[in-house]
């Protein structure tokens, strides 16, 4: 009898355990968010979980951006295409978005004091999504010519993402490329040329699908505000010293050498060139009067009240000046890094870039 009682007790415990596990499994399966692999069907309601989420014409980063939506914007799922979803926003616009940056509205908990029949409000959903916002520290390795624009961008982004702290590492694109290759910490890379970005992509150090051409710039010849010895490229040979970025590591220097070569001036002036570690050092040399002229970006010339623009180089004299941005594959916080890259295409970011003279890649 004693053995029968023990056997019955064991069976009872086993049945109870099986029941608990079945209930837990059902609850887990019922909540796709618990699996870490959100899958929605047509008609599901979702919300943006990024500072700026781009609507594209097709399911991929290579498709054109239609519009950007901010965190908390509500979306309705239409169909799935790989990791992308076709959705319709509250304003009626339809497009494709990357599923990683959507959260299902059902993830927002019902307030404890609410009556069972009361549904969760949009404001409560938004608050919950904001609580799940990206967080941590990001190191942004950016071309020196972006210094002023990025410093202003920092305040805007951190205001929208209170749990994220941005730290900038400014320098020549070539030097930043080498740092990333050598394992220096970086979450996002913004280059002043496609050459350095492609080099990192070829070495599998960049998240390819995150890479986008962000900005354009112009190359200008500048001189000290109170000096007018050189009137333009036609009288450049009269200068005693000319400041340029190092062509092998500074994109502005590479563009400058291409322009002077195209104009047939390089051989005549190359012995007068003083090389700088980045474009901001070129600007400093001109501002101090240590050189008579220098070649910098239009955006650099605009932020200085100590130099004058003598001439703007024709765009057909050099490689197109394009600034690509991407997430570094070794980033310890890739979700926040992608959020920042997406933010750079937002309306708020576009206003800052325009303020400092950058043109946006369309």
How is this structure best described in words?
The chain is an alpha+beta fold and 362 residues long. 33% of the residues lie in helices and 25% in strands. It has helices spanning 2-30, 122-131, 147-160, 173-181, 194-202, 251-262, 266-269, 279-288, 298-302, 334-343, 347-355, and strands at 45-48, 53-56, 65-69, 74-81, 84-89, 94-98, 102-104, 136-143, 164-171, 188-190, 212-216, 219-224, 242-245, 273-276, 293-297, 307-312, 322-327, 359-360. The strands form four sheets. A six-stranded mixed β-sheet has the order 9-8-10-17-11-18. α3 links the parallel β8 (136-143) and β9. The longest helix is centred in the first third of the chain and has 29 residues, at 2-30. The N and C termini lie far apart (84 Å). Mean pLDDT is 83; it is low at 19-37 and 106-132.
Give the overall pLDDT as a whole number: 83
Give the radius of gyration. 28 Å
What sequence of helices (H) and strands (E) makes up the elements?
A: HEEEEEEEHEHEHEHEEEHHEHEHEEHHE
* Tally of helical runs: 11
Question: Structural class, from helix and strand content?
Answer: alpha+beta
Approximately what portion of the residues adopt beta-strand conformation? Answer: 25-35%
Number of strands: 18
Distance between the termini: 84 Å
Query: What strand line-up does the widest sheet have?
Result: 9-8-10-17-11-18
Low-confidence stretches: 19-37, 106-132
The biggest sheet amounts to: 6 strands, mixed
Helix content: 25-40%
